[in-house]
Amino acid sequence: MSGVTESPPRAWAEIDFEAMRQNLRIAKQHAGEKEVMVVIKAGAYGHGLIETARAMETEKPKFFGVANAGEARRLYKAGIETTPYILGATLPAEREEIAARGWTPCLCSLEEMVHFNQLGSVKAHLALDTGMGRGGFLPHQVDEALEMLKRCEGIELTGVGSHLPVADEDAEFTKRQFEVFDGLVERIIEELQPDRENFSVHLSNSAGLLNYESRTTNLIRPGLMLYGASPLPEHQEKLQATMTLKTRVSLVHELPKGHGVSYGRTLLDRDTRAAVLGIGYGDGYPRALSDQGTEVLIGGKRCPLLGRVTMDQIIADVTDLERCEPGEEAILFGRELLVSEIAEKAGTIPWEILTQITPRVERRYS
């Protein structure tokens, strides 16, 4: 029907790219002169893959870190010029496209080396397993990997990388991991004599670059911190939240003490003014937040959730607010209510909260 005004969304996420650029500047300050791989896998942690790539390409990263060929293809089709780096082992069916498009894989097995070599010229990095257990060559397997690389004339080794499993949990293990990695890199450089100016050495994720030093790395891989959440709480105040998740009040009504609320009938312990909000686990707002002391922001004040999170709606106690009307905005997380707090209430991690926000939630960019 022509002439009908579209209604506003019930739930939306406001994405602040200037905050993201500022977070990148913080990462660079910690890293010194090192180059950057901007990690944008999983839809840029729920922020929007293409939109984030376009915004961050102006910062001239060396790579965009993606999970698979499908994400790299989306960047390619959108005209993104920054090289995608495939974070993890590749499937056989992905490799022809990766080689043909000039994307950079990390070599996690001898089988991958043989296959990529058969496909022609490809620039690739060698993946080392220094403790993650998710792929790559263990220290005692490195010599065999180097011998294979010497026979693979179709592969140009342009980097070495590994991954930190507990940089935000176990400092002693992480320090030992850096030592092991640096030693292996020095052996590899001595053995292969690569072009050092164009040879990328990378280990540090957000926690790694915030708290540790390496003598060999020249590339960092910030992920979570770019999106405004620090894996190490002591660094949180330096960062700015990049996503603010919002919804609207759809109904405000009075419920008497003892009345049940939501599935399972949580019983009210006082006469309550209840606000129904238009968001639920169908939007990615976790059901695990039910009955955990979770709060939302309405009118700048914290209001506790009542009862269980449902698929499309939640209920907040607004009894103590001076006013609350249908259509009013509510903040689920953002700068004043950190996603890390929400993650803790849900018994999970900020990475999961951000990446599970569903497509039903409209993204608005600034």
Q: What labels describe this entry?
A:
single chain, 366 residues, alpha/beta, TIM Barrel, Lyase, Ornithine Decarboxylase, Chain A, domain 1, 2 domains, 6-stranded antiparallel β-barrel, 4-stranded parallel β-sheet, 18 strands, 23% strand
In short:
By secondary structure, this protein is of the alpha/beta class.
Description:
This protein is 30% helix and 23% strand. The protein starts with 10 loop residues before the first strand and ends with a strand. The chain has two domains: 17-229, Alanine racemase (TIM Barrel, Alpha-Beta Barrel), CATH 3.20.20.10; 243-365, Lyase, Ornithine Decarboxylase, Chain A, domain 1 (Beta Barrel), CATH 2.40.37. β3 (63-66), α4 and β4 form a beta-alpha-beta unit. The chain has helices at residues 17-31, 41-46, 49-57, 69-77, 92-101, 110-118, 142-151, 171-192, 206-211, 339-346, 350-355; strands at residues 11-15, 35-39, 63-66, 83-86, 106-107, 122-127, 155-161, 200-202, 219-220, 243-255, 260-261, 266-267, 272-277, 295-298, 301-306, 314-317, 329-333, 362-365. The model has no long low-confidence stretch (mean pLDDT 97). The longest helix has 22 residues, at 171-192. With 366 residues, the protein is an alpha/beta fold. A six-stranded antiparallel barrel has the order 10-13-16-15-14-17. The chain contains eleven helices and 18 strands.
